[in-house]
Amino acid sequence: MNLREIYSKSNRPVLSYEVFPPKDDIDASKLEQLFIELSVLKKYNPSLISVTYGAGGSNQNESLEIITRIKDELGVTPMPHFTCVSTNESNIKTYLKTIEQLGIENILALRGDIPADGRFCHDFKYASDLVKYIKNKSSLSVAVAGYPECHKDAASFESDLRYLKEKVALGADVIYTQLFFDNNHFISFVDKCRKLNVNIPIIPGILPVTSYKQLEKMTSMCKVDVPVSLVETLEKHSSDKDYMKKYGVEYATCQCQQLLESGVKGLHFYTLNKSFSVNEILSNLL
Ligand code: FAD
Questions:
Q1: What is the pLDDT of residues 105-147, one digit of tens each?
Q2: 18 is catalytic
Q3: Distance of CA 92 to CAs 14, 47, 148, 161, Å?
Q4: Which of 79, 124, 239, 257 is the most exposed place for a label (fewest CB within 10 A)?
């Protein structure tokens, strides 16, 4: 099913999970473990499982294998992510053809982070270039990324929203957001988008915190405000792994409850390839 159908036909909030190809491609057990974790979460009837893409394209084969298995073994609609910053037009064309031949209907079109060495391909400078290309060259349904607290490289929040609107005007069907820990940022972001006539579904990205280290890593990678109460609690209990996971589940459950009450069309979970927290959150919610 394509994204437009998924979000327009569902009479309940649409559930989606994000996974990444295990880093060690030689270690097949990590891949098997990923599918064990996903089979635990399958009982909540996710409509979509998205698979991240390394900006350097290093894990393209593993991504394709995971995508195929999600579709054929789990019977769930997969959505590959694709970043354009480090690749050229010819590679993108081949990739689109490959996934369409595999029967994939959806793609999350991204720019990707600019490589630290500053070397990148100039065929596609921004995600909007990729959205335009995909809409011209394929019949894929396209999702894009949105940033409730503004993208870290953006000149201003206003310009970031303007470029998001451009991605939508070029044919995006859904926006998935970067993780956030304060729902006010998401609600205000949706409000700003609606005022700009961005009317497609905006799906919040939820990361259940499991450790203080993980939180530090995530927040160093993107511009995210962490409420003082969350930082203080995690700092205080940083050595108690079980407490951290339990608190992370409670926190994310509360976040999801509020978001559902605010009328979101779905929830997108950053699973980090583990089922425990998402399983607990969904059993609390459903
Ligand atoms: P864009 O929409 O192109 O925006 C990038 C920056 O450029 C923004 O600051 C924007 O304001 C600015 N901009 C956009 N258009 C223009 C223009 N025409 N002129 C001037 N400035 C402009 N990364 C990965 O490597 N792999 C993944 O699988 C992955 N999955 C993700 C999933 C989600 C849901 C999210 C939220 C992010 C994901 N990322 C992933 C991270 C993403 O690649 C980075 O945040 C990247 O820096 C920006 O990508 P984008 O598609 O949002 O870029």
A1: 999 999 998 877 777 777 899 999 999 999 999 999 999 999 9
A2: yes
A3: 29, 26, 28, 26
A4: 239
